[in-house]
C-alpha cells in the first residue's frame, strides 16, 4: 500500500511539472533547483512554488521550492494591513524602449548616461536620460548579461553567463562601451547574475545558482585574478538567491532567496539562515545598516508577490506588509521612508510599481505597466532624484521599456499627473548616434519621447547678465541647475545687485583651462579620486586638481614639457598644465569631443580655417556631426569665402564662458530644458 501511495505521489508530482511547463537546460550549466527543498518542520502539505524561469529566452529552468501552504492568517504580521493604501502617487513617464531586448539590469552613473544589460549578449546605452537607447553590444547566444554597474560614464562592468559552457563571466569597458575586454572567468560552473561596487576598490558579484558563489574584490576587479570566490551558504537546502542583492558603502552585504544571508565585510564571510518569507525571498535592498526590505513572489501556483521590512539591520523582520498581484523583482528606496517595490510576470502580462512613504509599512499602486519590471536606479538631480525603472515583455514582440520619474525632492514626490498605464513603442528609429563596437550587430538608436526626464523640476537659478532668451541662456541655465557651473556674487564693480540679488555669470569672459576642465569633467560624470600630482603647476591643493586629473588620466588632456621660460623642472620633471591660461575654441573641441567619447572618422572639410589633417580637424568634425556647434559665415573681415562658402571656426580664438556652456551643454545634455522656477 505504501508503495502504491508513493508511486501515486510521484506520478502526481511529474504531472504537475508537465502542467507547469518546466523545461531543463539542454546545454551545459549549473543546477538551479531548490525544487527538492522540503519543509524543515516536516508538517503540513507541501506546494510547488515557482518564482521564475531563467533564462527568459531560450531553454530554461525554474527557480522554485516545495513549501507548506501559507495560511491566510500569516500573511499580515503588521498592524497596517496587507493591502494598505497610500494617497500619494507619482507622475511616471514612458521614456524609451529597446526593441528586441530582455533587460535584466540598469545602471546610471550620471543623470544623462545609463547602461542596460540584457539577455542574448546585449548591452544598451543612453546619453539623454533614457529617452534614446543605442545597442552597443549584440553577441547573441550563448551570452546572457544579467548585471551591469557603471563606475562612471566610461568604466562599466557587466556580468552574466555563457549558456553553452555554463561559465559565469565578467567583462569591462573603459571607453563607455565602445570596446570591451575579453571574458573574465568567475566560475566555470555557475551563472553570475548581478555585480555591484561599494567604491572604486570593493565590488561583489553573486550567482543565482547552486552552490551560490559570491565573488568579491578589494582592488577594483580589473582582472579575473582580482576576484576571490566563496560559497555563501554551504547548506545543501540553500538552493538559489534572487537577482537583486544589497551592498552598502560600509561593505554590509545582504542577499536572499531560499535562504537569507548577510556579510559585514563585502562578501568575504557570510552568515545564513532561513528565508524571511516562509515560501522564499528574492529582491533585497538596504538603504542603510538598519533599514532594509526583502521581496519575493511566485508565478505558480498563484501569481503574487510580497514584501517584508526590517528596522534593525535584519535582526528581526515584519510579516508581509503587502501582497502584490505579481512577484516583486526589485526594491528601491530613496530614503528609509520613500521607495518602490516593482515587478511583474511575463507569462500573464502583468507588472508595475507600488509606492510607500512610511518605510514600507503601507503601500499603494503607483504605476501599472503590464510588463515584468526588473531593475531600477537613481541619480541626484537639482535637490531631488531621477528614478528609472525598466521591464520587458514578449507581446507583441520582445522589447524592454524604461520608465522615469523626477521626484522633485527626495522627500516630496509629486502627485499631479496621471500615471502611464499602457506602455507603447510607436517611434521611428533614428541614426543620429552610431558608435562603433567590437560586438556584432548594428547600433540602433531608439527614441520614445520628445521630452527627457531632466525637464521635470523647475529651477530658480538666474543670472543678472544672462536674461531669458539671450544667446546662451538655455545652456547656462541647464548647467547651473545641474550644479556644474556657478557665477559671481553681485555687488562688484559694474555688477549692481538686482531686487533678487541674482549673481552674475560673465558670459563674455574667457574661460580658463582649469575652469574648462572642471566643467567638462563634471558634465561627463567623472568622479574618481585623484591622489597623485600630474602637473607641476597643479598641486594637490589646487581648486582644479581633481578635475584636471580625471581628464588627464583618461588621456583627454595633456600639458607642456617643463624647462620653458618660467616653467622650471621639478624633482619629477612633471609637465605644466597652465590652468590659468585662456582656453581656445580648438582646445575645447578636442577635450569636449574626447570626454564625450565621440569616435567617428572624419571625412571632408567643414570649416575654411580647419584644414583636413590639422590639429583640431577630427574633433571639430565630430562635434559638428553631433550637432554640438557650428561656425561663423564666411565673408567677414579677414575671413573671405572659398569656392564652397564654408564657414569659419576660429580654432585659435579664445572661447568665452558662454560659448563653452553652449558646446558642453549641447554635448552632454542635448535635450536639457529645465523650466525656470517661480
Task: Kindly describe this structure.
The protein is an alpha+beta fold and 678 residues long. Among the domains are: 68 residues, no CATH class; 363 residues, Methylamine Dehydrogenase, Chain H (7 Propeller). The protein is 12% helix and 27% strand. It has seven helices and 31 strands. The strands form eight sheets. It has a five-stranded antiparallel β-sheet with strand order 4-5-6-7-31, with no helix packed on it. Strands 3-30-29-28 form a four-stranded antiparallel β-sheet, with no helix packed on it. A four-stranded antiparallel β-sheet has the order 8-9-10-11, with no helix packed on it. The radius of gyration is 27 Å and the shape is elongated. The N and C termini lie far apart (82 Å). The relative contact order is 0.10.
Amino acid at each position: 500500500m505504501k508503495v502504491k501511495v508513493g508511486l501515486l505521489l510521484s506520478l502526481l508530482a511529474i504531472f504537475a511539472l508537465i502542467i507547469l511547463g518546466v523545461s531543463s537546460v539542454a546545454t551545459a550549466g549549473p543546477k538551479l533547483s531548490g525544487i527538492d527543498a522540503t519543509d524543515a518542520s516536516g508538517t503540513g502539505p507541501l506546494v510547488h512554488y515557482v518564482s521564475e524561469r531563467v533564462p527568459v529566452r531560450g531553454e530554461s529552468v525554474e527557480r522554485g521550492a516545495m513549501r507548506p501552504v501559507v495560511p491566510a492568517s500569516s500573511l499580515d504580521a503588521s498592524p497596517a494591513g496587507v493591502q494598505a493604501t497610500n494617497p500619494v502617487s507619482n507622475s511616471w513617464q514612458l521614456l524609451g524602449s529597446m526593441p528586441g531586448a530582455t533587460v535584466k539590469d540598469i545602471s546610471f552613473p550620471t543623470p544623462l548616461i545609463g547602461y542596460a544589460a540584457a539577455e542574448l549578449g546585449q548591452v544598451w546605452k543612453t546619453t539623454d536620460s533614457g529617452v534614446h537607447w543605442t545597442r552597443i553590444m549584440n553577441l547573441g547566444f550563448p551570452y546572457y548579461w544579467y548585471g551591469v554597474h557603471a563606475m562612471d560614464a566610461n568604466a562599466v562592468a557587466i556580468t552574466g553567463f555563457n549558456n553553452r559552457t555554463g561559465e559565469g563571466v565578467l567583462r569591462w569597458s573603459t571607453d563607455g562601451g565602445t570596446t570591451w575586454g575579453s571574458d573574465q572567468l568567475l566560475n566555470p560552473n555557475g551563472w553570475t547574475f548581478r555585480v555591484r561596487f561599494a567604491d572604486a576598490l570593493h565590488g561583489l558579484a553573486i550567482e543565482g545558482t547552486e552552490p551560490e558563489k559570491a565573488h568579491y574584490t578589494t582592488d577594483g576587479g580589473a582582472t579575473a585574478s582580482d576576484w576571490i570566490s566563496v560559497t555563501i551558504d554551504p547548506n545543501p537546502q540553500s538552493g538559489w538567491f534572487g537577482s537583486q542583492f544589497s551592498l552598502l558603502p560600509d561593505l554590509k552585504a545582504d542577499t536572499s532567496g531560499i535562504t537569507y544571508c548577510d556579510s559585514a565585510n563585502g562578501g568575504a564571510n557570510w552568515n545564513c539562515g532561513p528565508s524571511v518569507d516562509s515560501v522564499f525571498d528574492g529582491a533585497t535592498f538596504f538603504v542603510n545598516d538598519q533599514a532594509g526590505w526583502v521581496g519575493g513572489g511566485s508565478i505558480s501556483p498563484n501569481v503574487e508577490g510580497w514584501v517584508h521590512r526590517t528596522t534593525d539591520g535584519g535582526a528581526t523582520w515584519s510579516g508581509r506588509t503587502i501582497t502584490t498581484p505579481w512577484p516583486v523583482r526589485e526594491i528601491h528606496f530613496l530614503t528609509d521612508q520613500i521607495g518602490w517595490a516593482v515587478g511583474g510576470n511575463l507569462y500573464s502580462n502583468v507588472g508595475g510599481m507600488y509606492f510607500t512613504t512610511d518605510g514600507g509599512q503601507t503601500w499603494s499602486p503607483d504605476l501599472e505597466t503590464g510588463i515584468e519590471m526588473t531593475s531600477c536606479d537613481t541619480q541626484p538631480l537639482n535637490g531631488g532624484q531621477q528614478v528609472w525603472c525598466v521591464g520587458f515583455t514578449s507581446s507583441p514582440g520582445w522589447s524592454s521599456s524604461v520608465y522615469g520619474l523626477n521626484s522633485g525632492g527626495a522627500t516630496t514626490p509629486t502627485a499631479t499627473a496621471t500615471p502611464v498605464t499602457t506602455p507603447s513603442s510607436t517611434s521611428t528609429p533614428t541614426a543620429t548616434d552610431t558608435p562603433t563596437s567590437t560586438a556584432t550587430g548594428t547600433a540602433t538608436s531608439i527614441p520614445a519621447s520628445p521630452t527627457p526626464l531632466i525637464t521635470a523640476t523647475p529651477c530658480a537659478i538666474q543670472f543678472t547678465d544672462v536674461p531669458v532668451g539671450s544667446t546662451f541662456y538655455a545652456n547656462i541655465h541647464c548647467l547651473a541647475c545641474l550644479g556644474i557651473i556657478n557665477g559671481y556674487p553681485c555687488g562688484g564693480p559694474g555688477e549692481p545687485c538686482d531686487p533678487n540679488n541674482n549673481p552674475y555669470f560673465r558670459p563674455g569672459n574667457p574661460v580658463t583651462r582649469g575652469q574648462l576642465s572642471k566643467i567638462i569633467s563634471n558634465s561627463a560624470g567623472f568622479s574618481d579620486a585623484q591622489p597623485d600630482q600630474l602637473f607641476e603647476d597643479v598641486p594637490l591643493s589646487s581648486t582644479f586638481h581633481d578635475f584636471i586629473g580625471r581628464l588627464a588620466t583618461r588621456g583627454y588632456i595633456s600639458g607642456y614639457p617643463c624647462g620653458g621660460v618660467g616653467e622650471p623642472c621639478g624633482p619629477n620633471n612633471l609637465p605644466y598644465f597652465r590652468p590659468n591660461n585662456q582656453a581656445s575654441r580648438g582646445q575645447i573641441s578636442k577635450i569636449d569631443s574626447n570626454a564625450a567619447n565621440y569616435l567617428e572618422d572624419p571625412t571632408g572639410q567643414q570649416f575654411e580655417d580647419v584644414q583636413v589633417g590639422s590639429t583640431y580637424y577630427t574633433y571639430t568634425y565630430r562635434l559638428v556631426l553631433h550637432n554640438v556647434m557650428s561656425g561663423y559665415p564666411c565673408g567677414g573681415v579677414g575671413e573671405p569665402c572659398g569656392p564652397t562658402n564654408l564657414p569659419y571656426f576660429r580654432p585659435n580664438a579664445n572661447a568665452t564662458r558662454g560659448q563653452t556652456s553652449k558646446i558642453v551643454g549641447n554635448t552632454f545634455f542635448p535635450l536639457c530644458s529645465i523650466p525656470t522656477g517661480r
